[in-house]
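Need tokens for this chain, all 140 residues.
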Amino acid sequence: MRELTVLYDAGCGLCRRFKDWLAAQTPAPDGYGGVVRLRFVAAGSTDARALYPALDHAATLRDVTVVADDGAVYVGDRAWIMCLWATATHRHTAERLANPVLRPVARAMVQAAAGLRKLSGGDYADECDGRCDREGRADP
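Here are the structure tokens for all 140 residues:
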């Protein structure tokens, strides 16, 4: 697998922050002498519809969706695991979370993120510039 396309909700602050975080990670080896490339496409966009006409584009706005260069489609916890797998630092964690024993943990993490997104109307942390402490006060 040499490339993964991540379809994310560009209108959601939490989703944009996840995309930015993922884009900043060191890519993992692809097994062919290169690295796994990540491409980011706004879910439901004209580009997404043109690239993947068979996808349910309304569903891609509800759950992060990853499409591999071999045509495999990953949704929800599987998509999050694939995103982690594509990074050098987090590949081992992804491999552990993919194990059937730990999949419920991955599923719970995705559901927690979805809950934050739903509670905030999709704009979780939009007011945060990354300099806040745990109590919401700006760092000096």
